[in-house]
Design a protein that fits this description.
There is one protein chain. The termini are close together. Strands 1, 2, 3, 4, 5, 6, 7 and 8 form an 8-stranded antiparallel beta sheet that branches. The protein is globular. Helix 2 crosses helix 4. About 45% of the residues lie in helices and about 25% in strands. The longest helix is centred in the first third of the chain and has 26 residues, at about 10-35. The chain is of the alpha+beta class.
């Protein structure tokens, strides 16, 4: 039985708790950035096989905005935060009061704002995981791409080699006064890193 198949409900509960705490950290950080209240719904946290990741954001050919990081340290891996284009436009409009002049593209200012938001969100989740495990987990400088989801994921493979076969999936929903805005966070640890994370948590991996 592989590591992914051997994960029990207790391990999933640990990861869900980490996701919940990360969401709280992210909401606080965004509120400070925007100087206005930002709430986040309790995220949906699951583990997925690598090959199912693109399906969760509309399929391999779905165009997304992806903020990508390499995670370095004790438990290295890959970290992505993805928005579909329309939620990203609403995020800029509703949270940053930025008007999208051209519906088919994003300005340098738009991209800079989205990169900063992705950086804050991803950093919040990664920080909560590092706090729980007492492992060093440091994100690199974020890179932003607007491309098909399959191409974005393959970029990580090409740049850094084979990814692990399992991803921590966190659906994040920003609660606004008039409508919700949703983004998706994926942490894809390197093949040996999930075992290190659970060992650090005192959770048996066998």
């Amino acid at each position: 039985m592989g590591f992914f198949e051997s994960l029990g409900e207790f391990k999933l509960d640990v990861l869900r708790e980490i996701g919940n705490i990360g969401a709280g950290h992210a909401a606080t950080a965004l509120s400070r950035l925007l100087d206005r209240p930002v709430d986040m719904d309790v995220p949906k946290v699951r583990l997925l096989p690598f090959e199912q990741i693109a399906d969760e954001v509309g399929g391999a050919e779905q165009v997304v905005i992806a903020i990508y990081f390499r995670v370095e340290g004790d438990a290295p891996g890959h970290l992505f935060f993805m928005f579909e284009l329309e939620p990203a436009r609403r995020l800029l409009s509703d949270l940053l009061n930025v008007k999208i002049e051209d519906e088919d593209c994003f300005s340098d200012m738009d991209i800079s704002a989205l990169s900063e938001i992705g950086n804050i969100l991803a950093g919040s989740y990664l920080s909560s995981l590092a706090d729980f495990t007492h492992l060093t987990m440091t994100p690199t400088v974020p890179q932003l791409a607007i491309d098909m989801a399959g191409a974005v994921l393959n970029y990580g493979l090409i740049q850094y080699g084979e990814m692990g076969d399992c991803a921590l999936f966190i659906d994040t929903k920003f609660l606004q006064e008039y409508r919700d805005i949703q983004g998706t966070f994926f942490l894809i640890p390197d093949p040996d890193s999930f075992g290190k994370i659970f060992a650090a948590l005192g959770v048996p991996t066998e």
